[in-house]
Design brief:
Layout lengths: L15 H16 L13 E2 H6 L1 H5 L4 H10 L5 E5 L30 E5 L14 E3 L10 E4 L4 H7 L1 E2 L7 E3 L23 H6 L11 E5 L1 H6 L5 E3 L4 E3 L7 E2 L3 E6 L6 E4 L2 E2 L17
Antiparallel strand pairs: 1-3, 2-3, 4-9, 5-8, 6-11, 7-10, 8-12, 9-10, 12-13, 13-14
Helix pairs in contact: 1-4
């Protein structure tokens, strides 16, 4: 079971599982190279090496806790597999220090296991396509929506669209959190006061609960323009954008404010509303 932590003010307590999850996310998405760890071609690290990382060692993280975090993560951020289960695939024969290659999925030996983040990387993965299922006209998700903030919208508009902004991909959710319809429109932080059931319904992979501007992509049109998309194992639509690394504003069927006045900002690829006062100045690059 998750063990609680403490937090000041009115913020909710940070659980031990959350602390472990954030640390693993950083390591698997951004920090592996800096920490001297080497991915397999498809982005896995040996669990034994992850547990020996100084940041996780300082937390005294156990393998049982890693398994619990992976299992309970509502957004499916991680994949945990036995090393031998990849033996017949493209990772076969790779030199992976600390991995025994045993196949028993009941094993509690971290040397038998590999772990990766399913999306959100800033580090380059040799076989990045191996993390994704290619999206075509035949398997289009019903929805591809990017959530951002009122403060970021002027920057996105100034740059002409969305960019990965330090990550490998722009992220899109394939739906909206069911609980949003139950929340007060302006209470973007009210998830902290939800019961467990409602909080789980407020989670959708690829969408932050704090999003106050929703950008609906015309995915079919974007594919026709030659932009490539893939679906991660946890159901997030990912793209590197066009040849300049951009998902242009003209490819969005609608951009609208969540809550507030419910302002429609873009309709059928055309900007139809000025930047509201107080949303910030149009400068910088679009945030992906």
């Amino acid at each position: 079971m998750a063990r609680g932590g403490r937090s000041g003010g009115n913020r909710p307590a940070v659980t031990r599982n959350t602390q472990i999850s954030k640390t693993m996310s950083w390591l698997l998405r951004h920090g592996a190279e800096k920490e001297g760890l080497t991915f397999t071609s498809s982005g896995f690290l040996p669990v034994s090496a992850v547990l020996q990382n100084q940041k996780l060692k300082s937390l005294k993280v156990t393998f049982d806790e890693v398994k619990e975090v992976v299992k309970e993560d509502a957004k499916g951020r991680f994949s945990l597999v036995t090393a031998a289960s990849l033996a017949a695939g493209k990772d076969a024969g790779e030199e992976t220090s600390g991995v025994t290659g045993q196949s028993d999925e009941t094993s509690n030996d971290p040397r038998d296991w590999l772990i990766r983040a399913n999306q959100g990387h800033s580090l380059k993965i040799e076989d990045a396509d191996g993390l994704l299922t290619p999206i075509t006209a035949e398997n289009l998700p019903i929805m591809a929506v990017h959530g951002t903030t009122r403060s970021a919208w002027p920057q996105i508009l100034a740059s002409g669209g969305l960019k990965p902004m330090g990550r490998n991909h722009v992220h899109f959710a394939t739906g909206l959190p069911p609980a949003w319809s139950k929340l007060q429109a302006e209470s973007v932080n009210s998830v902290t006061a939800m019961d467990d059931e409602t909080a789980k319904a407020a989670v959708v992979s690829g969408m932050r609960n704090s999003s106050s501007v929703l950008m609906y992509l015309d995915l079919a049109k974007a594919l026709e323009k030659g932009i490539k998309f893939g679906l991660s194992e946890n159901g997030v639509v990912l793209t590197e954008g066009d040849e300049s690394g951009l998902v242009p504003i003209g490819l969005f069927s609608k951009v609208e404010e969540r809550g507030g006045e419910g302002l429609v900002l873009v309709e059928a690829g055309q900007v139809v509303a000025d930047i509201p006062e107080g949303w910030g100045k149009a400068k910088g690059k679009g945030k992906g």
